[in-house]
Amino acid sequence: MNRPAADSGTGRRGFASALFSRIWASPYVPLLLAVLFWSGNFIVGRAVAESVPPIGLAFWRWILALLLVLGLGWRHIAKDLPALKASWPMLLVLGVLGVSTFNTFVYYGLHTTTALNALLLQSAMPIVILALTFLLFGERPRIAQAVGVVVSLAGVATIASSGDWSALASLTFNSGDLWVLGAVGSYALYSVLLRKRPSVHPLSFLAAIFALGSLVLVPFYVAEHLMLGPMQPTLETFLALIYVAVFPGFLSYLFFNRGVELAGANTAGHFIHLIPIFGSVLAMLLLGERLAVFHVVGGLLIACGLVLATRGR
């Protein structure tokens, strides 16, 4: 009598495993998922900016993400420990760039800048990745990639300005924008240097950079804790931490690293331009915002740019 239930459970696990394998084998689906989860990171970071200190949000995000990785991948981590120890200098660099610096700078910037400014500055990341890939490794971008970046950048500007490009001329920038710009440069360099990571299991790699990145944040977190006080243990804070740890933390890094591995940093970086599209869709679903013509025009431009950037791969 119990066999059908067992067979059903086995079948569901088999389907989930097969689905994950298909996702993992594709260079673009992991990148789409990574950007989808990241699109909510700016919304959450801005929503709790007044109640959650930026370093505290970043620190506990990575501690929770690290615990999740350790629970899922401890067997792989134990096996890969010698390789991780041998590569600790590069892991430290990647941990500082991609974990400690990037998210902390973003959260600092969101305290004093607008979502529009942050979105426009982040859209420069594919250009920075193309430049760094050329400067560090002599890898010239394909013409289609360069044109694709320009086209999709026009789409980002269309959505960010609500179709009124003249509004971009009246933008003002402040110290928060410098933090976001620093975050863009930091993650662009992280993306380019991923080719230097050790050949270990993806969960082992995440555990290493999450641990090292969190360790670097400890003295800054203690200083912030003493000067600004402890993080308020509210339901909003708890839900924000869970989201940023699981989705833009653990899953986005897992999928983005895989996308860079399969498609290269130049192509992977171009997917960052999908953030305003996913952000607009989430706003429509969760906040009741309406679809406008500029959403469609901007989305088509970004899609065309993405097709050009990935053409021939």
Strand and helix order: HHHHHHHHHHHHHH
C-alpha end-to-end distance: 51 Å
Global mean pLDDT:
86
Report the C-alpha radius of gyration, rounded.
Answer: 20 Å
Count of alpha/pi helices: 14
- Give the strand content: under 5%
Percent of residues in helices: over 70%
Structural class: mainly alpha
Overall body shape: globular
Number of separate strands: 0
Taking pLDDT < 50 over at least 5 consecutive residues as the criterion, the unreliable ranges are none
Number of domains in the coordinates? 1
Can you summarize the main beta sheet?
none
Notes on the structure:
Helix 3 (54-86) packs antiparallel against helix 10. The chain has one domain (29-310). The chain contains 14 helices and no strands. The chain has helices spanning 3-25, 29-47, 54-86, 88-112, 115-122, 125-137, 143-160, 166-169, 175-193, 202-228, 235-263, 265-270, 275-287, 293-310. The mean pLDDT is 86. It is globular.
Key attributes of the depicted protein:
14 helices; 313 residues; single chain; mainly alpha
Q: What can be said about this structure in brief?
A:
The protein has 313 residues and is an all-alpha fold.
